[in-house]
Design goal:
With 997 residues, the protein is mainly alpha-helical. It has 45 helices and ten strands. The strands form two sheets. Strands 1, 2, 3, 4 and 5 form a five-stranded mixed sheet that branches. Strands 6, 7, 8, 9 and 10 form a five-stranded mixed sheet that branches.
């Protein structure tokens, strides 16, 4: 008798055995049906050993209550007397509520757990076929399937089979079930069955012999007409049989569903016919198939129907599978597919996603399949559809390091075991780790984690996921280093041929040179080599994610050769998370940025500074440049220092532009291309202005000391004045001066012109730094006129001789260096010219239109494609800029917003003033931004300016990557450019040449 207020001894024992609701368990133990066994300690010990003792006891009570008296006695006697049944039955009941429900509905099925013979321990397809042989309809097939599933689960939870063996048994049971379903479909439609030969090809995890408890069973159907039957009707019959097979397995009945049969991996997916002939399959794969379809065919395995036709299908498609790695952009396509899967995971689920999330099962599977496809073309030992078998074969062949393979094998087994137990509980298709404490406790205990199961489960799960995250991409690159390294005895290296295959698959055009670079970087026992061996597997992946991996690796070798002995360089790459990726992106994006970096490799430090990619403003730059000029002893030394600052800041700007365009693992690409264009334009303009200010100070100081005899200002024109400089732009300028008090005008003019000449000389001296070209051709009288004029001379010229095109050019005039007050007086002088009161007269408008038409016909380079020329072509920069400038000259006097040197700002002001519609303004802006980015991209890629897309395929692809196009999509890039500029040209025809301004 229990004393009131004190717990019973049974209650205490239940708590000790792991029951979470001992009061409910006490009540269940008191049901009359359990009277013969309730006091037997064997029962409580066995319940306590299950994943969920409460669930196991509740399930046992339901089963016992469902038996008649004789069967109940037999069950209870066997339960207490036979340990194998006890462990199996209670183990299943403690892990699976769904199988407990099945046993309650079909109480005699507990007998399926009694047999404990050799054949029962490791059944195959034949044994499962015998178990399903009596099924004649969908309902009886489901009951028989669950009976088999019961035995598989029992072996799994008791540890008789490991994860891989359980997955193989589930695949064998699926094979037997597909055969049984096809037999039922044939029996119900014998006429259809007689007309065709139909084979069922398993794909995915079923084809790979590694199925889950609850998963779609992916299949492809292939058929041929039987002898004497017409193909069209035979294929219709095969389609009906295939559809019937799918319904038998997938439809909901009183016994639920078995699993969905998914045929969407077939050619053309849901849009294609359900059944094809073998020749139709081959025609599709040879002409239209995408890379992922060959990846899927890795696991193709005939499982049901006509065995000869199934074998013929696999033999026919197999050679195509192992040629897939030779396709353009193969690795990029596979990796893009993986990224797309991750991107489609809802944000709220990504941390709990066991299969598809970062560090999940799919990472292991993708990595293994990628390596199989690359090396399987020359090594048949890799031709396995089973992930763990393929991983073992890759390790045995030296394609993957043994230690890496062992860690991935362990992680994959643990994650798959988690997935199995999560699905087994309710037999539902899910890959999400539960959030409920009770579910996590059951899951942890089912995996053998009995001490603090929730804490231990989370710790083990995160540990294994971290291993997968760390290794899954490096798995592809690390053996490339082993191929050129001195390995420990017994280690297997990647052969030179296999390494070349892998590098080719990554997009390297010269694998032999790449291997030489790897050897030079990573050989030896120095600390430098050790750090390089750690960095290179990751860097190789980033290089491969570019249009020119060879250039990236070569550039990295050059930078490392230059800086390898400095203590901070490798430490920066190793310890500053973003620095290594930023460097890889910059080195492999084209020629300009690496050329700038290699002239002064210490600038690599910019890439590790959190604010390092932010352009410096003009005031900051001018202060630094003028200080450097002041420290120099000669004009040449002064300007060399200024040009050194310019080179460093050019590198900062190009690096920021590249990384903003590509994005990194931690920072997505800039979504607004206009923001990138404005950032580059501002940065280059500020830098050019500061450099010119430095050159002006150096030229003056060399001959006149601190004060020039005449006040002097530099006026920016063109893209310089508009703050729209590109990487290949010259600096268009005007020079204005005003004699100081008491200085003769001729002396002042000589001084001003000597300063201009000296500035231009200094800025173009041959050095390692890029020259700065100053172009003064927009001055009055052009090349025939003096380089510098006084303010009065400008006033006289513009009053008497100015042409309309000169007024148009002055729209971009802005003070950039020298005497700011003089510069502002110059702008006040020209404002009436560029924003004439009451706007332009019709004669002036006609003249501008005539000049534009003449320029289009005469200045386009011979042979250039006008649809792709960014400056003078259809809908390009010139079209948009002249249209905006005409609006500025006609309406600037009355619309203050139009009085700006910037094209995009003026266009926005015109839109705000109602001069251009929202849609038209958006198209013109988008076209101008795109054309500007193409010009910048060409300069970044080729290292020299160009107004049209490159003709070289690799350079064109690199421009595409800069613009945000994935590998293999340069055709889309060109088509998008043509489509957008065609629309822009239509608007220009209306606004510039029409009558609606």
């Amino acid at each position: 008798m229990t004393v009131p207020g004190r717990r019973s001894s049974t209650f205490t024992r239940l708590v000790r055995h792991g029951f979470t609701d001992p009061s409910a368990a006490e009540r269940l133990l008191e049901v009359p049906e359990l009277a013969p066994v309730r006091s037997d300690p064997v029962l409580l010990d066995a319940l306590g050993a299950t994943a969920d003792p409460d669930l196991a006891l509740a399930g046992l009570v339901r089963i016992v209550e469902a038996q008649d008296a004789d069967e109940r006695r037999t069950l209870l006697d066997t339960l207490i007397g036979a340990k194998p049944l006890r462990d199996r039955l209670l183990g299943v009941l403690g892990a699976s509520e769904a199988l407990g429900d099945h046993l309650a509905r079909h109480p005699h099925d507990w007998h399926a757990l009694v047999t404990y013979e050799a054949a029962d321990l490791h059944p195959g397809v034949a044994e499962f076929e015998r178990c399903l042989a009596d099924a004649t309809d969908p309902v009886s097939l489901r009951i028989a399937y669950r009976r088999c599933l019961l035995a598989i689960a029992a072996r799994d939870v008791c540890g008789t089979t490991d994860m891989a063996e359980s997955a193989a048994e589930l695949a064998d049971l699926a094979t037997a079930t597909l055969r049984a379903a096809l037999a039922i479909a044939r029996a119900e439609a014998p006429a259809d069955a007689a007309q065709c030969r139909l084979a069922v090809i398993a794909m995915g995890k079923c084809g790979g012999h590694e199925l889950n408890y609850v998963s779609d069973v992916d299949v492809i159907f292939v058929a041929e007409p039987a002898d004497g039957f017409e193909e069209g009707k035979a294929m219709q019959a095969a389609g009906r049989l295939a559809a019937h097979l799918m319904r038998i397995c997938s439809e909901t009945t009183v016994e639920g569903v078995i699993w969905p049969v998914d045929a969407n991996l077939r050619p053309e997916g849901r849009n294609g016919p359900l059944v094809r002939t073998l020749s139709s399959h081959l025609a599709y794969y040879q002409r239209w198939a995408k890379t992922w379809e060959f990846q899927a065919l890795l696991k193709a395995r005939p499982v049901a129907g006509d065995p000869e036709l199934g074998r013929a299908y696999v033999e026919a498609v197999s050679p195509l599978v192992w040629q897939a790695a030779e396709r353009d952009n193969f690795v990029a396509d596979v990796q893009k597919m993986r990224r797309r899967v991750v991107d489609n995971i809802p944000a709220a689920q990504v941390e709990r996603e066991l299969k598809l999330g970062p560090g999940g099962l799919r990472d292991v599977e993708f990595a293994v399949q990628l390596l199989q496809l690359v090396h399987g073309r020359s090594d048949a030992t890799l031709h396995s559809g089973t992930t763990l078998d393929a991983l073992a074969a890759l390790a045995a062949g030296g394609y993957v390091g043994r230690a890496d393979a062992a860690q991935l094998d362990e992680a994959y087994r643990f994650l798959r075991a988690m997935e199995h137990r999560i699905q087994l509980y309710r037999l539902r298709r899910t890959h999400l780790v539960p959030e409920d404490e009770a579910d996590l406790r059951r899951l942890g205990r089912s995996l053998g984690l009995r001490t603090e199961p929730v804490v231990s489960l989370n710790k083990e799960w995160k540990r294994h996921a971290s291993v997968v995250r760390r290794l899954h991409e490096k798995l592809f690159y690390r053996p490339l280093l082993d191929a050129v390294a001195q390995l420990a005895p017994g280690e297997t290296r990647l052969s030179a041929r296999a390494a070349a295959h892998r590098l080719e698959a990554l997009g390297y055009a010269d694998p032999a040179a790449a291997l030489r670079h790897l050897e030079a970087l990573s050989s030896g026992v120095s600390r430098k080599a050790a750090i390089q061996r750690t960095l290179l597997p990751v860097l190789l992946g980033w290089f491969a994610d570019s249009a020119d991996p060879d250039a990236g690796l070569l550039g990295f070798r050059k930078v490392s050769d230059a800086l390898g002995k400095t203590p901070w360089y490798l430490r920066l790459l190793r310890d500053e998370g973003a620095a290594a990726e930023n460097l890889a992106r910059v080195l492999s994006a084209g020629r300009l940025a690496p050329d700038l970096l290699l002239r002064a490799p210490e600038a690599v430090a910019i890439l590790g500074d959190p604010d390092g990619l932010t352009p410096r403003g003009q005031d900051h730059l001018e202060q630094e440049v003028l200080a450097a000029v002041g420290r120099a002893e000669t004009a040449e030394g002064a300007v060399a220092a200024a040009r050194g600052v310019r080179r460093r800041e050019l590198f900062r700007t190009t690096a920021g532009d590249i990384i903003g365009s590509y994005g990194t693992e931690d920072s997505p690409a800039e979504e607004d291309p206009g923001a990138l264009v404005d950032r580059v334009g501002d940065a280059l303009t500020d830098l050019t202005a500061a450099t010119i200010a430095g050159a002006l100070r150096a030229a003056v100081r060399a001959e006149w000391g601190e004060t020039l005899p005449t006040r002097f200002a530099v006026i920016g024109m063109g893209r310089f004045g508009g703050r729209e400089l590109g990487y290949g732009s010259d600096a268009d300028v005007l020079f204005v001066h005003e004699p100081r008090a008491g200085v003769d005008e001729q002396e002042a003019a000589r001084a001003a012109n000597r300063v201009v000449t000296e500035m231009r000389r200094l800025l173009q001296l041959p050095t390692a730094d890029p020259p700065l070209i100053i172009d003064a051709d927009l001055r009055p009288e052009g090349k025939s006129g003096p380089m510098a004029r006084t303010l009065k001379s400008y006033e006289a010229y513009y009053r008497r001789w100015s042409l309309v095109w000169e007024s148009q050019a002055l729209l971009r005039a802005e003070v950039m260096a020298g005497d700011a007050e003089l510069g502002e007086r110059f702008l006040a002088l020209i404002d009436p010219l560029r924003y004439p009161a009451e706007g332009l007269g019709e004669d002036a408008v006609r003249e501008i239109r005539r000049l534009k038409a003449r320029m289009e016909s005469e200045r386009m380079p011979r042979g250039a494609d006008p649809t792709l020329h960014t400056k003078l072509g259809r809908g390009g920069l010139s079209d948009v800029e002249w249209t905006v400038q005409l609006m500025q000259m006609r309406h600037g006097w009355e619309v203050p917003g139009l009085r700006t040197t910037r094209t995009r700002r003026a266009l926005a002001a015109a839109h705000a003033a109602g001069l251009v519609s929202t849609e038209d303004a958006s198209i013109l802006d988008e076209a101008w931004v795109l054309a500007t980015r193409v010009r910048n991209g060409v300069m970044l890629v080729r290292g020299r300016a160009g107004d049209t897309f490159p003709s070289d395929g690799r350079e064109l692809a690199a421009v595409g990557r800069y613009l945000g196009y994935e590998p293999g999509h340069v055709g889309d890039m060109l088509e998008d450019y043509r489509r957008l500029t065609r629309r822009a040209r239509g608007i220009v025809e209306e606004l510039f040449y029409g009558a609606h301004l």
